Structures are given as structure tokens and as C-alpha cells.
Amino acid sequence: MKEQLHALFSQAIDSLKSNDVIPADHETALVFERTRQKEHGDLACNVAMTLAKPARKNPRELADLIVQALPSDPLINKVEIAGPGFINVFLNNEAHTSALASIFAQGDQFGLAEPNSKQKIMLEFVSANPTGPLHVGHGRGAAYGDALARVLAAAGNTVEREYYVNDAGRQMDILAVSVWVRYLQAIDINVTLPDNAYKGQYVVDMGQSLASLHGKRYEITRDEFEQARTGLDDEAALDATISLAKDKLGNDGFALFFDLALNSILDDIKQDLSEFGIDYDTWYSERSLFETGKIDRAIKKLKASGDVYEKGGAWWFRTTEYGDEKDRVVVRDNGQPTYFASDIAYHQDKLDRGFDLAINIWGSDHHGYIPRVKAAMQALGLEQDKLKVLLVQFAVLYRGGEKVGMSTRSGEFVTLRELRDDIGSDAARFFYAQRKSEQHMDFDLDLAKAQSNENPMYYVQYAHARICRLFEKANEQKINTSNLDQADFSQLSKSQEIDLLASLQRFPEVVERAAQQFEPHQITYYLKEVATAYHSYYNSNKVLDAEEPLRTAMLALSAATKQVIRNGLNIIGVGAPESM
């Protein structure tokens, strides 16, 4: 409908331009917004106010001229001028019921743009260090990221999902050492696990597994182990333990512990995400940046441009010249690249792969990291506008009204798998997706499991199931439901029906706006609106008791509502059950 109005208003403005009312060379932006109050019509346009200055006219006077120049259209009931110059458009019933024909014709594709008609987008999300199972905090980034990928694809973009595997660096060394300590304990060498090592049961299990496979092949005396850490603070002691492990185990031995931990946890992460309905196109290894020389090439380019300098044996990037608060190390004094160096090379590689837009979804604690990544892109001559960083607040989980603590290293956390087992993937995804990503979120497990109207997911899914049951009853009563697309839609004239039709008609607009604003939560808001409208309609009308041809039209409206709810739930990765 907005496209049709755009064409009508464009004709009116072109007519005014030809009569020198509006400058012929002035570009006109036509925007139609859904009104919030019925007395203001269905759609409002502010074009008279935007054109008043170049036309040198009062906005209301110009609005009147635009209305007079509008071609007649059978779908427009009337047009009014309101306030300082808004043009309010009142549609007739046929304009609303026309949505039903589109829904029946397009089915599962209703609301979706033509596939691959817009940008090629790479979406990187979760990318949690493979140092432990995914927990409920990661779950929010996972649900948001995948819902956003689905929304962007629904709006016509080509989307590739990517997981950046941090399989290099100190955190992985800490994990490997944590497994080694648990291995030593499993072969009865009573060494002490460093306080800042990884302490979850999954680490104990990996250590015991290696003990069963290799016996005492990688043992060390307790005294030698403890002596290496004596007199050191926690972090220094941990680094000393890593050095000891690498020295005693050798490259092959250390790689055994490192790779077992990496592959075991990464396989677990892949399984978790797949069972959560998320499958990635690419699992990108940080180590590959070293192996292919991409880090060295990126740093070499920065050295050539003078954007890095040597100080104290280390190489520093001049990030202060690009707005950062201080310069950052890219190569340590021991010759090893930093995480920042890996990220520089990784982001260059992202854009080298030909994406129109690369989206990073990071935890909100990474906010300060954005300027230095942007600085690196600018220094490398990359288009900063091709990188979009979206931040996600971790969810705070509540069970029985009590906050659940979270700490990966201490092993005190609720895993994503435990959450799914408790409330199901659908509930987890819906609850995660119903808030703006940057907003704080309290996740109420009790509410997520409640089978009541207070549970927003249950409320939406129940509307879909309720319509399915309506058609089961129709079939039981031998009511013909095979040609609903041929129903006499003009029978739908009640205010509740028009309101519901107007909501269904908005679905493509909601999808497009959610994609433009990177806000999949708009889909959940919309679905709750549609569910509310349908529940109210159903409770007020005995559909199957109506006389023909009204009954068939009411069934058509119900079928269209079911289709839109299913399409919307699919976009956020949530199922549409036929019974509840």
C-alpha cells in the first residue's frame, strides 16, 4: 500500500513542479508513517512540511495543493490535512483486505524480500573462546546474532554466518595447563590447581580421560611443579606454570593437551549451537592467520605507512592519532603478535573477501575496543563504513527469584545446554530476542516455562495453535476450507477485523525496518501485537457459527493470521506448534 501511495503522491508533486509551485530540480523524499490514532487515518505524510521552504509556501497551504493534485484512487476513502501540515490518508476496507490476497498468494514468502537482492553481509557472532562450554550469557549473543541473520536475509540480503575461533594465545595455554594439572591429579600427583586456572568439571573430565589413555607418561614431581610458582603473584605464577608445562611436555606433549582441550570444547560448542538452531557457514581459525602469514603482512603494511613504531623492543600502533586514548602494542618484545594484531589481520581479511558489510556482534564489555579496530582499518586504507559493531549485554539469569552467578574460570555458570534442557530452545530464543541487544536483560526462567498469557512466547504460539484447532473443528464439521483465497473479503468490515487486517498488512514493513535498524526484537513486538488482535477477535466472534459467506471470509482472515505468525516466528528461529 505504501508503494501505491508513493506513486500517487509522486504524480501530485510532479504536477506541482510542472506548474512551478515546487522547484523542478528539487528532490522529494516521500515518507509514509502508520498513524497511532484512528482519528488520524491509516497513514500520514509530512512532505508538505519538507517542501514548504523550497516552495516558499505555508505548509498547510502546500498540503492543500498536494491533496488537490492527488489522482483519485478507489482504495483511498479520504485525505485530510492536520496540524502544521500533515497529510492523513484514510483507506477503505478494500485497501486492508487486499493484504489477504497477497498472503495467500505468497504463503511462506509473505513479508520476505526477493532473496539475494541487496547486500552481501558477513555476520560474526558468539565467537566465544573455546575454553569452556557456552553459558547463558553467550546464549543471548547467539540468539540475537542468528535472529539478526534471519531478519537480514528476509529483507533480501545474502548473509553468511561466521564464528571466529580464538585457538591461539594465552587463554588457550591456560586451558591446556588446567587440563594438565587435572591429568596430574588423576595419576595421583597432588599438585595444586592455580587459582586463576579453569576449574569446571569439564576440565576434570578431560584430565581423567588423558590419564586413562596415557597413564603416567606426562608426569612431574609435585615439588618441581610447586617450586616453579613459589613467590610469584597469581598471574605470574600462572605464566610460570605454562612455561613449565611447555618445557616438560615438549611441543608434541603440550600440543596433546592443547588440542584435546580445543577440539573437545569446540565440538561441544558446535553441537550446542546446532541444537540451538544455529549453523555457521564458516569457522574461522585465529591460528590460520599465523599460518598463512596474514598477520605478518598486515603489520608489514602498517610499518611501511609509519603507523607502527618500535619502543622497548615491542611494536606499537599509533592508535592515538585515530582517536584512541593510548597507543596499542601489536608485537610484544618477545616477538609474539598480540590479540590486537590478530584482529587487525582478521578484519582486513573480512573485507578482502568481498563483503559489502561486515557485522561484529560483541559483548558490551568490548565497547572500548571498537575505536582501535576502526583505527586499524583506517590505517590499512579499508572502508570503515563496511564494519558495523553491535553490542550485546549479557543476560542475568534468575531462578526462583534468585540471581544465578556466572564465572567461566571458576566453573560456576549455567550452560546454554542446561538452559535449553530446562525451558527449551524456542523459549530461550524468543526471550533472548525480545529485547534490544544493548539493553540489560533479566531472564526469568519461571516465566519462560509458564503456560499462561503472561509468557509472551506462549501467548504468540498459542494464537497459532488456536487457529490450527479452529480448522480441525471446521474439518470435523465438514466445512469447506479449500478455497479461502476466493472468499468474499468485503464481508470483513468490523473494526476488529480491519484492525487485524491492518496489522497483517504491516508485516513486510516490520521486517524491512527490523533489518535496517538491526533490531530483530521488532519482530517479537509485532508478533505479540498480532496475537493480541487475534485472541481478542476470536474471543468476540464464533467463527464457525457465522453464516456464509461471512464464515468463509472469517476463516480466510484466521488462515492469513496463522501464516503471518508462522512466518514471523520462523524469522526469529522459533517454532509454530499446531497444538499446545
* Extended strand count: 15
Instruction: Determine the strand fraction and express it as a percent band.
Output: 5-15%
Main sheet, how many strands, which sense, barrel? 5 strands, parallel
Helical content stands at: 40-55%
Uncertain runs are none
| CATH T-level fold name of the domain at 99-115 and 452-571 | Isoleucyl-tRNA Synthetase, Domain 1
Average pLDDT, rounded to a whole number, is: 92
The CATH homologous superfamily of the domain at 99-115 and 452-571 corresponds to Isoleucyl-tRNA Synthetase, Domain 1
Question: Numbering strands along the chain, what is their spatial order in the largest sheet?
Answer: 7-6-5-11-12
Q: Can you tell me the CATH architecture of the domain at 99-115 and 452-571?
A: Orthogonal Bundle
Rg calculated over all Cα atoms: 30 Å
Q: Structural class, from helix and strand content?
A: alpha/beta
Number of helices: 21
Overall geometric form: flat
By CATH reckoning, the class of the domain at 99-115 and 452-571 would read Mainly Alpha
First CA to last CA: what distance? Answer: 35 Å
Describe this structure in a few short sentences.
With 580 residues, the protein is of the alpha/beta class.
Task: Give a quick set of tags describing it.
about 575 residues; alpha/beta; Gyrase A, domain 2; Isoleucyl-tRNA Synthetase, Domain 1; 5-stranded parallel sheet; 4-stranded antiparallel sheet; 21 helices; about 50% helix
What does this structure look like?
The structure is a single chain. This protein is an alpha/beta fold. Among the domains are: 2-91, Gyrase A, domain 2, CATH 3.30.1360.70; 99-115 and 452-571, Isoleucyl-tRNA Synthetase, Domain 1; 170-275, no CATH class. The chain has helices spanning 2-18, 47-55, 59-69, 93-106, 136-154, 170-186, 201-214, 222-227, 234-275, 286-291, 294-305, 339-352, 370-379, 416-423, 425-433, 445-449, 456-476, 495-505, 507-516, 521-540, 550-571; strands spanning 32-34, 43-45, 76-82, 86-91, 120-124, 158-165, 282-285, 308-311, 314-317, 328-331, 357-363, 387-392, 395-399, 402-403, 441-444. The strands form 4 sheets. A 5-stranded parallel sheet has the order 7-6-5-11-12. Strands 1-2-4-3 form a 4-stranded antiparallel sheet. The longest helix is centred in the middle third of the chain and has 42 residues, at 234-275. The radius of gyration is 30 Å and the shape is flat. The model has no long low-confidence stretch (mean pLDDT 92).
